[in-house]
Specification:
The chain has 314 residues and is an alpha/beta fold. 41% of the residues lie in helices and 15% in strands. The chain starts with a strand and ends in a 13-residue tail after the last helix.
């Protein structure tokens, strides 16, 4: 899992997010979007956090050409390369740059694209720029539910595959789209089958597993069940009435999979969920802390948590 963490306004928030990932029993990458709120010099903070994390445990979330200048983007990429970090950057045509602006081409011309670059979304990017991404070995993460709900356009799964990019899948915004990766597979599958009917269920299981590991970096040790890799396994209940009887396991996962089917989870061979319950996690205590945090934030913001509050419109 890559955690795209941005809009942090103080180092303490980043430290708390890192601690949360450490306590969550799974492989994760902390993708730090420092400076997204406008800080001009992110290098000291990125160096501070980099010293705390393993080589494959951190990435740099670029502010990128949609929200900053190309000079700043070049400086951020140079910092990431110095520190050995992969980079992730949001890019889509629906919002964020004026007509005629070519951010991918500009990044290519300045040598800022390589196999350690992941673009999130990619909606509406011109064909020649998609080809530039493929030529540089870039990866792409498709967030189908958010892309459809927020009007970015049709998820670009097929266009990416046409140039040889195997996309990964992402949620992007859990409050808006939920955190269910089974539903993400299903949405991506349904949309692409509706557009061209060319892909099969197995493609989307690969997007969610080995292609996701490749985009994040640790595909040499996770993402597939292979001798020599970590024993990262998810066991699903095939006797659950919502899917029984299972004839085609792969097709069932994509067409009808849901979190309640997850019976057991192993991370590097260690059981972290058994019989549908997390192992070694005090959920009542976590729920209490969450409610306390929500009330504290709502009170500070002058919001009554009763469903009546709506975000301001522009």
């Amino acid at each position: 899992m890559l955690d795209w963490f941005h809009c942090s306004d103080r180092p303490e928030n980043a430290d708390a997010a890192i601690q949360a990932l450490r306590e969550a029993p799974g492989h994760s990458v902390f993708c730090y979007g420092a400076g997204a709120a406008g800080e001009p010099d992110i290098a000291p903070e990125i160096r501070r956090v980099r010293s705390q994390l393993p080589d494959d445990g951190m990435a740099l979330g670029l502010r990128g050409p949609q929200v900053t200048t190309m000079d700043t983007t070049a400086a951020d990429v140079a910092l990431a390369r110095e520190l050995g970090l992969r980079v992730s950057v949001h890019a889509h045509r629906a919002t964020g740059w004026p007509s005629g602006h070519r951010p991918i081409a500009d990044m290519r011309d300045r040598g800022l694209l390589d196999e350690r670059t992941t673009f999130v979304h990619g909606n509406g990017i011109s064909d020649d720029q998609v080809a530039m991404m493929a030529d540089a070995g870039c990866s792409v993460s498709i967030s189908p539910d958010v892309e459809l709900k927020m009007g970015f356009g049709w998820p670009e799964t097929g266009r990416m595959l046409a140039v040889g990019i195997r996309p990964s899948l992402s949620i992007d915004d859990c409050p808006s789209a939920g955190g269910d990766m089974f539903a993400t597979m299903r949405t991506a599958f349904a949309v692409q089958r509706g557009l061209d009917g060319a892909l099969m269920a197995r493609d989307f299981v690969e997007f969610a597993t080995v292609d996701g590991a490749r985009a994040c970096g640790p595909d040499a040790r996770t993402g597939s069940i292979t001798v020599g890799k970590d024993a990262d396994l998810i066991l699903l209940d095939a006797e659950n009435p919502s899917v029984f009887p299972v004839g085609d396991p792969v097709g069932t996962i994509v067409a009808a999979g849901h979190p309640s089917l997850v019976d057991s989870v192993f991370v590097a061979g260690r059981a972290v969920k058994r019989d549908g319950r997390l192992v070694g996690v005090d959920l009542p205590a976590l729920r209490a802390r969450l409610l306390e945090s929500r009330e504290r934030i709502a009170t500070a913001a002058g919001i009554v948590v009763d469903g009546s509050w709506k975000p301001p419109t522009r």
